[in-house]
Amino acid sequence: MTDAAELRRRTKELLAAHPPATTERLDFLRARFDAGLAWVHYPEGLGGLAAPRSLQAVVDAELTAAGAPDNDPRRIGIGLGMAAPTILQYGTEEQKHSLLRPLWTGEEVWCQLFSEPGAGSDLAALGTRAVREGEDWVVNGQKVWTSSAHLARWAILIARTDPDLPKHRGITYFLCDMTDPGVEVRPLRQITGEAEFNEVFLSDVRIPDSRRLGERGDGWRVAQTTLNNERVAIGGTPIPREGGMIGKIAATWRERPELRTHDLHQRLLGLWVEAEVARLTGVRLRQQLVAGQPGPEGAGMKLNFARLNQGISGLEVELLGEEGLLYEDWTMRRPEHVDFTGRDAGYRYLRSKGNSIEGGTSEVLLNIVAERVLGLPAEPRTDKDVAWKDLAR
Catalytic residue at 242? Predict the structure, then answer.
């Protein structure tokens, strides 16, 4: 069993062999992966040492103290939080060994081709088709709300491979090379003025069967692994006390006493307590992950994340008064990641509106919490046994 002392020893060996001050960033990250110190709970040879997940903090603390570079997790969050755990669970050995290293080092950015114009909240109704032709699958369709598609080399993709089956069946999961012919990425400008989201058109894109993840027709089950990890990644990111958006408004409150009122004080206290409860709940959820894969509990974390962000950003704009109406720049940009704390209050207010849509709408997550966490009866479904091709659209 690899313990904390062993991990510290291995980390010191890495730092001695590859001093951060004199080693190129990418070379250091590759060496860290090869040493099993990328994600210590992954298997040996895949960036880990099969150690307890909780011991990752030991490695991270040693590397941070030494000034070692990180892999810019905000930029590659979809790969780290969604693609990697799905590939680890369902991928072939060849897929794991060829894809996980450049994913973790950030050499290859990933995106998610799940939602469609007619299949967002009802994702299982997706209509993108994949038809088998020899050793390839020919894919045609449209995906939407695709973060980082303009940066991505790879995408996780679900497509319908058997329209004669009900909508939750007949779906297959693929790994799509975004540089292949027939993949077109178009920006979607948001209320913030930026276009971090995209729509992606797939026209006769040929995906080799070797890039299928899981069995044919088992894509919905594979996708549940991705979605559960996505909700934890969005709602359960580790932060310190007063980290994130609550820290921004708390700092303004302390620095600008002229803005304070009794009512605003009471509301800020309530949100501060809720943010701290959410932070501690995230700590508990990550401790539970040590024992296995994330379950539906992540839906509650993501649900609360959206509600809190919108409440905090709304109060911040109100606290700032006329200043809260200002917006720094409406220039059309295609950013590499979302920056909630590095921008102004106007940006936070507008961008947080998307938190209740991305990663599963709040309405869908309420159903998941009700049915899968609380055990309440499921809503009646009239389409459960109807072939997808016979559904009204």
Answer: no
Q: Which of 108, 196, 230, 297 is catalytic?
A: 230
Mean pLDDT of 5-14: 96
Q: What is the pTM of this model?
A: 0.90
Lowest mean pLDDT, pick from 23-27, 30-34, 356-360: 356-360
pLDDT for res 105: 98
Please write the tens of the pLDDT for every residue from 142-198: 999 999 999 999 999 999 999 999 999 999 999 999 999 999 999 999 999 999 899
Say yes or no to pLDDT of 35 above 70: yes
Write a three-state SS string for the chain.
CCCHHHHHHHHHHHHHHCCCCCCCHHHHHHHHHHCCCCCCCCCECCCECCCCHHHHHHHHHHHHHCCCCCCCCCCCHHHHHHHHHHHHHHCCHHHHHHHHHHHHHCCCCEEEECCECCECCCHHHCCCEEEEECCEEEEEEEECCCCCCCCCCEEEEEEECCCCCECCCCEEEEEEECCCCCEEEEEECCCCCCCCEEEEEEEEEEEEHHHEECCCCEHHHHHHHHHHHHHHHHHCCCCCCCCCHHHHHHHHHHHCHHHCCHHHHHHHHHHHHHHHHHHHHHHHHHHHHCCCCCCCHHHHHHHHHHHHHHHHHHHHHHHHHHHHHCCCCCCCCCCCCCCCCCCCHHHHHHHHHHHHCCCCCHHHHHHHHHHHHCCCCCCCCCCCCCEHHHCCC
Closest CA to 216 of 174, 178, 177: 174
Residue 172: closest CA among 231, 99, 113: 113
Strand partners, 143: 200
